[in-house]
Specification:
Layout (H helix, E strand, L loop, with lengths): L4 E3 L2 E3 L5 E6 L4 H13 L4 E5 L9 H14 L5 E4 L13 H12 L4 E5 L7 H10 L3 E8 L6 H13 L4 E6 L4 H18 L4 E5 L5 H5 L1 H4 L3 E5 L9 E2 H20 L7
Parallel strand pairs: 3-4, 3-10, 4-5, 5-6, 6-7, 7-8, 8-9, 10-11
Antiparallel strand pairs: 1-2
Helix pairs in contact: 1-2, 2-3, 3-4, 5-6
Length: 264
């Protein structure tokens, strides 16, 4: 049984999938402006994609900006993400720089993203260091060129769980419709048979958009939507995403509460 993760007043892993909106601005002023919009929006969570920031390699500047973001985001959990080139992001720094920035963020934010399959990274150790600061860890993996086989997706998610992450995330790129079904089937298998932590999965690009909407059916606990600029291919606009999630939730609730009609 999955144990939900509560961050501020947001419970991840129960009910309707939570919507996370990304901040992807290049300069501090726009980052703070986007944070103010996000705090007032219908989103549940906010992700700062620090790899887009012009000074992301500066530990001191990052720490100061994180403090300002936390002051703005009073009600919404803040997820710190510094996505590397290897997984589709903008950060091209060293492993040491990556680890330092993640550890600095863990002292301030609610959640940090850790790319657990990064070459040379001791992911289990870094996860434990962040959790000692009282921060929750989203273990992540991104495939921007393909969709692995179902068993491989499940294996990666299980590994994330085994090394102690609080939330397990994988995003893959579909090359055909069957790839989207593979991702959804892997999600259902992981959640039904192995997961004790909340799972986040998505099939990217337009072809995979259905995976961003159907989390409550297949088991993905968080979906990512954009206020303005998207941080990954296939993200839907926040308002549209909220409407779809509510329609699915209401239909599911109605189905569970209705009597089965006899077939004549």
């Amino acid at each position: 049984m999955i144990k939900a993760v509560k961050v501020k007043d947001v419970v991840i892993g129960e009910g309707v999938p939570k919507i996370c909106v990304p901040i992807v601005a290049f300069d501090e002023q726009n980052i703070l402006e986007e944070a103010q919009k996000a705090e007032k929006s219908m989103a549940d969570m906010v992700e700062w994609r620090a790899d887009f920031w012009e000074f992301c390699k500066s530990s001191q500047a990052t720490e100061q900006l994180l403090g300002k973001l936390q002051e703005i985001l009073k009600t919404k959990p803040l997820l710190f993400t510094i996505r590397t080139h290897g997984e589709g992001g903008e950060f091209a720094g060293t492993l040491e720089e990556y680890e330092k920035l993640v550890c600095i963020a863990a002292k301030t934010v609610d959640l940090v993203d850790i790319e657990v399959f990064m070459e040379g990274l001791s992911a289990k150790e870094l996860i434990a260091r962040c959790q000692k600061e009282g921060c929750k860890v989203v273990a992540s993996n991104h495939e921007f060129h393909k969709t692995p086989k179902q068993e491989e997706i499940v294996m990666r998610l299980r590994h994330m769980q085994e090394i102690g992450a609080d939330i397990l995330k994988i995003a893959v790129m579909p090359e055909c419709r069957k790839d989207v079904l593979t991702l959804l089937s892997a999600t259902e298998e992981m959640v039904s048979e192995y997961a004790v932590k909340p799972v986040i999965t998505m099939s990217m690009a337009g072809l995979g958009a259905i995976s961003r909407m159907s989390g409550e059916i297949f088991g993905s606990a968080v979906t990512f939507g954009s206020m303005e600029a998207a941080s990954a291919p296939g993200q839907l606009q926040l308002a549209d995403l909220r409407n779809v999630l509510e329609i699915i939730h209401n239909s599911k609730e109605h189905s569970c509460n209705s009597e089965i009609m006899p077939i004549e």
